[in-house]
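Researcher: Batch entry, complex prediction.
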Amino acid sequence: MLSAQQLEAYITQNLACEYIKVLGDDGTHFESVIVSNDFVGKSMVQQHQLVYSALGDRMRSEIHALSMKTYTPEQWKKQSA
Amino acid sequence: MDAQARIKETVSTNPVVLYMKGNPKFPQCGFSNLATQILDACQAKYVSVDVLQDQEVREGIKQFANWPTIPQLYIKGEFVGGSDIMRAMYESGELQVMLDAAK
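Model: Structure tokens for the complex:
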């Protein structure tokens, strides 16, 4: 069964993240917070597409749903301040 | 007509289209349910397409927007996002503005 930790590893293999936290323990539904410099200047759709493309085919097969909150490092600083 | 052409036609002839699992009365997935609730909260008029009724559209819609999950919202032919983005744009008020402009 896919764990949240594995999913985190899959994402960070293909996307440089300043911060990432994936939660979920049923093996198919996950929630995440992802902070990446690659998100700068991109729309929310494009940010989510980056994460989806980092996951590639796994998104079609193993993962039913990945809920995401995406932030640029600057947004994240404001968010956590 | 192939799936891509059918999707293109649906999203360009209807101002607001939600591709979802099930229908607004009986959503078959929590995320699709959330999407319908957000549109209802915005008092939006929209067309819904149940992807569970059409395997070609179910697969085709993922390629259409380069987006691997359902639900998917389209306003005036443009892909707006899935349920996370719908929620964020609803909370910021942006979605209401877009929906009002599409009326």
